[in-house]
Amino acid sequence: MSLKSIVHSARRKPLSLKHQFRWKLVPRFIWRSVHSFHITLLVWGLVTIGCIFYLSQWMNYRQVAHRVDSLETQRSILVSKLELLEVEISYLTRPQRLEFLVEKTMLMTSPNPAQYQLSWIDVSSTD
Amino acid sequence: MNQSPRFQLYSFKTRLLTVLFAFVLCFVAILGRVFYLQIMKADYYTAKAKLQHEFTVTLEPRRGRILDKNERILAVSIQLKSLYAKPTQIDSVSQAARLLSPILDIPYHKLLIELKSKRNFVWIKRKLTPEQTKRVQKLGLNGIGFIEEFRRYYPNGNFAGQLLGYTGIDSQGLEGIENKYESLLAGKPAAYIVEKEGMFRTVPLSNIPKKIPDQYSLHLTIDSTIQHFAEKALREGVIKSRADRGTVVALNSKTGAILAMATYPGFDPNRYQLYSRALQLNRAATSGYEPGSTFKMITIAAALNEGMISPDQEFFCENGKYKIGKNLIHDSTPHGIMTLKQVLKKSSNICAAKIGMSMPPAQFHEYILRFGFGQRPNSGVAAEASGIVISPKKWQTIDHANISFGQAILVSPLQMVSAANVFANEGNWVPPYIVDHVRDKNGKKLQEIKDTDGKVIRRFGAGVRSIVIEASVAELVKEYLISVTQKGGTAERAAIKGYHVAGKTGTSQIYDQQLGRYSKTRYIASFVGFAPASEPLVTVLVVVEQPRTSYYGGSVAAPIFKEIVQRTLLFEDVLPFPEQDKVESFKQGKTVTR
What we know:
- The complex is a heterodimer.
- Chain A is mainly alpha-helical.
- Chain A has two domains: 1-35, no CATH class; 42-108.
- Chain A is 78% helix and 0% strand.
- Chain B has 19 helices and 23 strands.
- In chain B, strands 2, 3, 4, 5, 8, 16 and 17 form a seven-stranded mixed β-sheet that branches. In chain B, strands 10-9-23-22-21 form a five-stranded antiparallel β-sheet, sandwiched between helices. A three-stranded antiparallel β-sheet of chain B has the order 1-6-7.
- Among the domains of chain B are: 58-86 and 121-219, Penicillin-binding protein 2a (Domain 2), CATH 3.90.1310.10; 223-271 and 492-594, 2-Layer Sandwich (Beta-Lactamase), CATH 3.30.450.330; 290-411, DD-peptidase/beta-lactamase superfamily (Beta-lactamase, 3-Layer(aba) Sandwich), CATH 3.40.710.
């Protein structure tokens, strides 16, 4: 049985429009296909290639997933470190501390409205 | 041996069949065993295999952060290690206890008892500092391990402690904002399954949750700098007046955003166990006090709005003593005939009582409610008090008079500052609020949170304003309030050079439960006001409880108000008035870029 005859048997013109696809021919098509050495070889060849391809993809996926997992772990460690730094910045720049440092080390005092009144004309002209 | 071919054939067939039968039997036996293992005991062996190469990684939720309006961290969860022991696996219990005791700061004998325990797992110390962790790791002891946990940390110490509240050992919100927004801040643990391979490689089998599942972060309206101004001025004021405690609330006049909320003495949420319960209360929202004379502005505004009095009307203040039934009302200094402006400027109780009594109780009560008293402000601050406003049906004449000048009514500082803010907003009551917005795990800004059905369950940011009095009345009362801080007013010490300040002092006696009457020695001094009066930026209330140097709001609370507002205005670039002779037409409140 040749491939041509198998395809032909499957493509036989339907008797009526109601039965365009003839389901009852499907088992016969498979049976006849199996009887053909070339077709069997082709089918199993394709199945084997598919399996190898799937296996390689599966292995690749597992490798990537592992990498993602380890990267996520690294990332969370870095995020924790970053957050700790943010907390430190927040602690070091708290207004109480800044005011204390400004008053004690730079000998500066809190602003007073009087300071602004002296230079009012200059300030308003730049606005 | 001669055997017939037939025999040979049968014999071969028999042998073949025997071997075949044996094979089939073996095959059936194997098939049966396979069926038993694969089908009958499938669940058991699947579970057993999973136990060997699969395990679940649980990600503990990181509690959401609390930030101020400038994204400054107020509360954050940091990852720390907790130390545990498996006593049966420790080589030498006494040696381990001796080595660990100085590092962990736990007495040796106490540690020894724990390590000698027959239990499989024992916590030694939870949430170690990074330094302690490093030192314990260096020891390399067997049977000792770490588990990562989160610890809540408040970088600013006792800064806004009562407002923020604190969390317990298992990171559950116990007080303040931490407790109020527990459902948003706390999260649910996330987990994913991991397969262990022969090369000690781990491969996740389910989707990895996006890092550690952070929850919503709360962005408050608090400005750390203004909060600092408030806390510092309050601390100095309370110490100077030798008062029991003090409270400050500062609002953004236009939006109602709470810029600062402080109570002194405060407490450090990082070490909340060391402080008494009384110190942990956020008195700005949870406690009630009798507002005293600060309430007169409400009385006058209500009467003006109802047309019961007119701005140019004059009142006789009975020369300092006025009898209502069996009760006598006093003024601190005797006054004769006064205008409405003078009533507020000099703070006459008698005239305020007369003005209040010019309105029917139900009508006056209606205005009290409209100004936000007797109900929770729903600002988002935890444990808000609704205060106590007696039903007008139960008012006696003396109650009516007392309420007119701020006695016989209990309000929270937050309610009082919101009520005073009506005069800074052309007669509109602006609801105060503490949470500006929240951000989800992906940093997306949210003004409201919906449930699964799309129904809004929480809304953040500014609320809906309500009209309380007419704008013209609010403007008129504002003028009177400005006069209070000017020469001859009760709050000259609240005046700031270069700014118009509107405000009102309050001095109320504390009701003594034991004596059953108002105390003659214990007072609450307060001041509420806003500035600049022409274009209000900040509305501040200062309440000082039981001051001992002087008990007048004008001398105890007003200077604290001045200190806070002066620094806030300069910080916000609201420049003071120029000299009158230098610039003629100048609208105050204009800001410049620094």
